Amino acid sequence: MIQTDPEKVSEIAQKIADMPNVSEVYSVTGEWDIIAVMHIHEYEKLDEIVPNALGQLTGVRRTNTILAFRRFSAKDMAWDVGATNN
Q: Which domain holds residue 59?
């Protein structure tokens, strides 16, 4: 999640969309201005991507990183905590 200077949202969103490993970029309402979805295979890459790439873009005020450990889709919705696959 990225907070930007108000006049820089579109410009920064496009720069982020052009970065390697970025699959989706959304402008959003609320406390954050942009949400970017990235796919990385090595945890250590976060250091290169967040403070060294995103954080250096002019107009970026603040970032918040959330790590996803499982993806759900409509067909996965039958899964439940504690369910077993027997």
A: 2-68
Nearest partner of 61 among 5, 1, 6, judged by Cα:
5
Q: Which pTM value belongs to this model?
A: 0.78
The average pLDDT across 66-77 equals: 78
CATH number at residue 9: 3.30.70.920
Q: What are phi and psi of 45, to 5 degrees?
A: -65, -20
Half-sphere exposure of 59 (CA within 13 A, CB side): 15
End-to-end distance of the chain based on CA atoms, in angstroms? 38
The single residue listed with the structure tokens 């979805």 is 37
pLDDT band at 34 (very low <50, low <70, confident <90, very high): very high
